[in-house]
Amino acid sequence: MAKQDIQAPEQEETIFTIPVSRLILWLSLAAGAMVLIVAIWAVTHNRYVVTVDVRSMDAPRDCWEDIDGGLLSREREAKRSRAPRRSYLGYCGAVLTTHGAFALPETFPRPWLGQTRADIYNRLHRGCRYDLVVTADKRPSRRDAGKSRRNRPQIRRIMFSYPC
Fold it and tell me: pTM, whole model, 2 decimals?
C-alpha cells in the first residue's frame, strides 16, 4: 500500500478567538467611523443661526490679513480693497447688526464650507433682515450689541433674506 499524504486543514490565525481578517475589517470600520464623527463635530461645533438687522456695513469687499506661513501654508502679506471707516473694527472691518459686530470670512483662502466674502458682501444691505449662520464662542444675542469682543462672531453663510 502506498502512503497517502494527509494534510491537516489550515487554521486561521486568531487573536482572542477572533479571526485576524475579521478583526482588521472591524478595526478599520471603527477608525473610519471615528474620523467621520470628528469631522461632523468640527463642522457643526459653535455654529448658530441668528436673525439680525444690518445697521451698517463697514468692511471692504476683499480683505485678508498677513500670516507668517507654516507647515501647510505659505507666508502672505495683508491686503484689502479699502480701509474701514471705523478703525476699531480691525483691519478687515465688520458688519454692524442688532446683535453686535460680525466679521466676514477672509477672501483668501476661500472657505471650504460656507460662502465667500464677496458673496456675503454683495447680499448684505443696510436696513435689511437676514438669517445668518455664524461661528462664535457663544450664541450672539441683542445684549451683545455695542459690546467689544476680542473674537467677533464670523458670518459663514446667509441662510435667508427677508424682504427689505
Answer: 0.72
Nearest-angstrom CA–CA distance, 44 and 157: 13
User: E-assigned strands of the chain?
Assistant: 14-15, 18-19, 47-58, 63-64, 79-80, 94-97, 100-102, 129-135, 154-161
Q: Which amino acid is at 116?
A: T
User: Is there a cis peptide before residue 109, judged by omega within 30 degrees of 0?
Assistant: yes
What b/e string do you get for 122-161 counting C-beta neighbours within 10 Å, with b at 16 or more?
A: eebeeeeebebbbbbeeebeeebeeeeeeebbbbbbbeee
pLDDT tens-digit readout, 83-137: 888 888 888 999 999 999 999 998 877 777 779 999 999 999 999 999 999 998 8
Integer Cα distance of 62 and 104 in angstroms: 10
